[in-house]
Amino acid sequence: MNNSTPSTGVYANGNDNKKFKGDRPPCSPSRVLHLRKIPSDVTEAEVISLGLPFGKVTNLLMLKGKSQAFLEMASEEAAVTMVNYYTPFTPHLRSQPIFIQYSNHRELKTDNLPNQARAQAALQAVSAVQSGSLALPGAPTNEGTILPGQSPVLRIIIENLFYPVTLEVLHQIFSKFGTVLKIITFTKNNQFQALLQYADPLNAQYAKMALDGQNIYNACCTLRIDFSKLTSLNVKYNNDKSRDFTRLDLPTGDGHPSLEPPMAAAFGAPGIISSPYAGAAGFAPGIGFQATGLSVPGVPGALGPLAITSSAVTGRMAIPGASGIPGNSVLLVTNLNPDFITPHGLFILFGVYGDVHRVKIMFNKKENALVQMADANQAQLAMNHLSGQRLYGKVLRATLSKHQTVQLPREGQEDQGLTKDFSNSPLHRFKKPGSKNFQNIFPPSATLHLSNIPPSVTMDDLKNLFTEAGCSVKAFKFFQKDRKMALIQLGSVEEAVQALIELHNHDLGENHHLRVSFSKSTI
Predict the structure, then answer these.
(1) pLDDT, tens only, 258-304
(2) Separation CA 90–CA 83 (nearest Å)
(3) 510 band by pLDDT with thresholds 50, 70 and 90
């Protein structure tokens, strides 16, 4: 083999191919990247699109006979970000995995090589799109041009959150429109929200146009998307609430689950991220969610639909690999008020979002507790709705626990009644498959839905009941068609959360126990 290649440039002799099968020492970072296992029918634009989200692509050399290519980025920093991103999440072109490493060359010299016309034309077309001098095909003209200084960060609000929407699900959906670098999720104004940063404002633009107003699942979990005023996100921890996909070395933060190895494997598996590549000329592949509610018109370079399977039997979503520890149904709840909280109180509150089997308040640290739900989906749902909620003057935090079950105390072990088994409780809301309660899961709200009210109980009786529990009653009304049900509006969400804990299952006489839920309505 001819090894006389000058160190400054690359020629088509496949010099970088030598001994790459595992025994080659890794090269130091370079802005030239060596790509292997490229399918023979892949176009120049598709290869360029792998690098596009990370910065300007300045040159390309395709070695089709060897299924290889060299890609030159404008800066070493862009190349490093690209390699860091694609190391755990192997990119795919035409459903084939592509392997990327640094080249031992510092720049690409292709001026004197034959067959470079197509590569140069593709580079010029991409740079025209990036500079905004070319309109997006199929895009409305008023939206198709990127405004100067437009942010690559999207603010996402999810309305009608009936099923858990995790950071992984957002990554799965938004990756179809380009490379997602960072995601932060949080609850604000009783709504599940996220900030999501793309590598390029063009990707953010396209995702917003295609996804705004769409439902993730049938008739629920509606996406409301705007550009954020932030131009970049600062992620400190990689856990179930925030993630920087370019920095796998970040800590998980106190009390947060780490990304366990099986989870990381599931996360990079086909089906979860079937293709992070951004489609021809940097346009995102289209997604089709017809089966599950999200139907998005095709985008240039479209791929097949993204499958999120629905578990119809229980009326909940089964999302592969979408829990912090796959299948874990135990939550770690922290920052509780030890003077007021009891296992029964946690059972009632978390029972709004699933069937609670066991609760353990920590013997040595009573502001922390473990709550075991019936399954991982219910745990995720309770975590999404309750983490960040105020309860007895403190902001509750819920994350997935590293424990798989809550242990009951051994006989004779001192426990002070801090561990309780509720698995046979008659108060479970979701025991019956297909129960109507599945359709009435709402975030904590100041308005409560009351039901199972006996005929003899008046409005004043109910108002007094809530006032005696320490609530300020702002409004009350019985349902017109059914006097067994009513809405009551209290002074704050925190009051309502505490009233639900105190008064759910309260004995109203005549063998009627009051049922209390959060309502999406206001009076």
Answers:
(1) 433 333 333 322 222 222 222 222 222 233 232 233 333 333 322 22
(2) 10
(3) confident
Q: Residue 327: its pLDDT value, please?
A: 64
> What is each CA distance from 459 to 74, 350, 478, in whole angstroms?
71, 28, 8
If you write DSSP's letter for every residue of 60-104 in order, what string do you get?
EEEEGGGTEEEEEES-HHHHHHHHHHHTTS--EETTEE-EEEE-S
Q: Of 336, 198, 244, 193, whose CA–CA distance to 252 is shortest?
A: 244
Type of residue numbered 54:
F
What's the one-letter identity of residue 148? P
Q: Is 379 helix (H, G, I), strand (E, B) or coil?
A: helix
Cα(239)–Cα(477) distance, integer angstroms: 43
Residue 267 one-letter amino acid: F
**What's the token pair of residue 120?**
């140069």
How far is it, in rounded angstroms, from Cα 401 to Cα 185?
18
Kindly give, in sequence order, each residue whose CB lies less than 8 Å from that of residue 41, ignoring residues fewer than 6 positions away.
94
Spell out the residues 6+ positions from residue 402 whose beta carbon is closer than 8 angstroms to its own.
Answer: 257, 325, 332
d(CA 285, CA 414): 59
Question: Residue 128: CB partners within 8 Å, gap ≥ 6?
Answer: 134
How are beta strands 330-334 and 397-400 bridged, if at all?
antiparallel
Query: What is the structure's pLDDT at 291?
Result: 27
**Nearest Cα to 284, choosing from 232, 209, 233?**
209
User: What amino acid is encoded at 153 in this protein?
Assistant: V
Phi, psi of 51 (to 5 degrees): -90, -20
Residues 122 and 44 sit within 8 Å (Cβ to Cβ): yes
The most confident of 222-236, 299-313, 489-503, by mean pLDDT: 489-503
Q: How much is the CA Rg of the chain, to the nearest whole Å?
A: 27
Q: Long-range contacts: 46-49, Cβ < 8 Å, 24+?
A: 46/93, 46/94, 46/277, 46/279, 46/280, 46/301, 47/71, 47/93, 48/122, 48/123, 48/126, 48/281, 48/282, 49/126, 49/277, 49/278, 49/279, 49/280, 49/281, 49/282, 49/283, 49/301
- Which tens digit of pLDDT belongs to each residue from 369-386? 999 999 888 888 898 889
Rounded Cα gap, residues 458 and 411, in angstroms? 47
Is 50 exceeded by the pLDDT of residue 112? yes
- Other Cβ atoms within 10 Å of 237 Cβ, number: 17
Mean model confidence pLDDT for the chain:
76
Provide the residue count of the chain: 523
With beta carbons less than 8 A apart as the criterion, state whether 177 and 210 touch: yes
DSSP secondary structure letter of residue 340: T
